[in-house]
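Example: AMP-dependent synthetase/ligase domain-containing protein.
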Amino acid sequence: MSMAEMARLSLGPGRCIAQVSAIGFDLAAVEISRYLLHGATLVLRDLEDPFDHLHDVHTIMTTPSFIAACSPDVVLELRTLVLGGVSIPQALADAWAHKQLFIYSPSECGPFSTPIQLQQGDKVTIGRRLPHVDVYILDHHQCPMADGYWNRSATPARKAFMPNPFRTEQEKIMYCMVTWTTIRGFRIELAEVEKAVRQADKAISNTAVIVADQLRIVAFMTPDDVDLGALLQALCPLLPSYVRPTNIILVPELPQSASMKVDRIALQTLAVSITPGQGELPETPTEKIIAKIWRELLQLPDERRTRRDDDFMGIGGYSVPAIKAARQILKPLRQNIPLMLIICQTALSDVPRTIDRFQAPEEPSARCPSPSAGPSAILRPFRGQSATARW
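Written out as structure tokens, the predicted fold is:
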């Protein structure tokens, strides 16, 4: 980061910067070293509540997915917000655009190379390059994009390609076109998930992976006699946790469209139908409150009724909404219950029991399941077998 950019972000003595990123994330190097070298104060996050330290900071650098779980009303001292790493919804940009300095770019390095400074009412774009930065479009061989079409030399290139997408008019800037799927704030290539599934079990003859409800990764595969437990275990070293399928459905054959390709629209319908139709509904007032909070946070469809045996991660949850859900659950209780104690309980029926069991702060806290225990699977009949993975 150049001195000019540091000055633009007003990073220096007297400024409090939020430490948000995990230590293994590349942005952590910027938070820890660059800020301190310029005299700013780094405010460390609470391991149990990653939002608690944001109240008094002046600058936050993070992803749109993280900031979406935080309300602008609780960061009253915030003056500079820098977002990158994933595309930002227009509604989220509008909610935070009133801050003094709001910088955004869809890529990880974009805020320091091709940023856009968003103000109230601005439309989200990919930004424009900084004066000291050159932008090139390259393939995986580090070669630039060719002019024209492959084997169609007669077609003039000027009809398909603009000479420079970074024009002077703001409304003419090219918008971000991402072919990857974004789920839970992560960019995911579904073809890579399908490849890993086939690699995990050589007996799998065909597979298709879709995103259902904009929250769940659902993998369909044939034949319908695959060992689901062994498959879940084999996927652990092949895929990071956020990419592993939430549901695995074994079917005799994948539906096909009229063009003899996998009918992914039909798979979307099947993905909705795997939601368990039986099971006890929330009974106690506490269970009903928790179910309501989960439904609102995960934006579950109306036909998807939350049940006592539901697992937060199994119905589309992940770490950031889990923290937000725990905060909302504990807020009306007005008790000194550790936040992590609630986060670790992912089954709906377990949360009220955990709250009732908690007597005093000195009692031993509940621990999260050990990662060495591996994933668990809930098997349910569905034209074969299905599994809901708890990673």
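The longest strand covers residues 206-212.
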